[in-house]
Amino acid sequence: MIRFLSLSLNGLIAVLVISLFLFMPALSDAKQLKPVESLQVSHKKDIEDYLMGHFNPKKHEAFAKVPAKYANRSGYYLRKEALNAFIQMHKAARKDGVKLVIRSATRNFNYQKGIWERKWRKQKKSRSPKNKALNILKLSSMPGTSRHHWGTEVDLNAFNNKWFTKGRGLKLFNWLNNNASKYGFSRPYTQKGKQRPTGYNEEKWHWSYTPLSIPMLHDARLVLDDSKITGFSGSQTAKKIAVVQNYIFGVSQTCQ
Ligand SMILES: [Zn+2]
């Protein structure tokens, strides 16, 4: 009787363990796919299109226009949550005598394609396609791989790292480093080195709203690969460069 009981107990444990394994992928999928809700889309293809910037932010219900007083011009768009957080941060900075100015926000695929192809045409004919692409990637991202597609990124005040190292720029940069995280903002393109061996060069002006962009980066891991990066001159180089791994995921720890 005791022997029978222990056998059936073992059997029960075995069933439990097997069912746990059976359901585990579903559970972990559900966990990983949760960020999808934050995008308000329901299919992988939709997520892929979103992350690659194949949409018009002006017509997307999760986006809002950035009021001109927060930017150098009107016409920028951000996801509503990111914009609200930025406005709170802007107010706090203002109290401390720091004026944050948005110089760029959401840029969709077509916009990025325009930038990229203009630069592609200017590359020396003698360069290999891969070297042409690597040369452009020093300053601009490949269409489909820019974090600016996501509606969570802002470029602030000056496109010049030096500006942030003295005077007004340094004061602003110090303020952001001490306070931005309270509002959910973090810097993806920190200094390159051991901590961040691949990706774009340092950009002191580029800040990311991580409560949205971190889940989006996780989504990117699920749906994007180099074969999806197509639709522009030189896109055949995406695979050779491993652009998804080296650039999309080449961000600081605080943005992962
Ligand atoms: Zn940027």
SSE map:
Elements (H helix, E strand, L loop, with lengths): L1 H32 L1 H5 L4 H8 L11 E3 L11 E3 H16 L6 E3 L4 H14 L6 H9 L15 E4 L10 H13 L5 E2 L19 E4 H14 L14 H4 L1 H6 L8
Antiparallel strand pairs: 1-2, 3-4, 4-6, 5-6
Question: Could you characterize what this model shows?
Answer:
This protein is α+β, with helices and mostly antiparallel strands and 256 residues long. The chain has one domain (40-255): Muramoyl-pentapeptide Carboxypeptidase, domain 2 (2-Layer Sandwich). It contains ten helices and six strands. It has helices spanning 2-33, 35-39, 44-51, 80-95, 109-122, 129-137, 167-179, 210-223, 238-241, 243-248, and strands at 63-65, 77-79, 102-104, 153-156, 185-186, 206-209. The protein has a four-stranded antiparallel sheet. The protein has a two-stranded antiparallel ribbon with strand order 1-2. The chain binds zinc ion (ZN). Zinc ion (ZN) binds next to strand 4. The site of zinc ion has 6 residues, from strand 4.
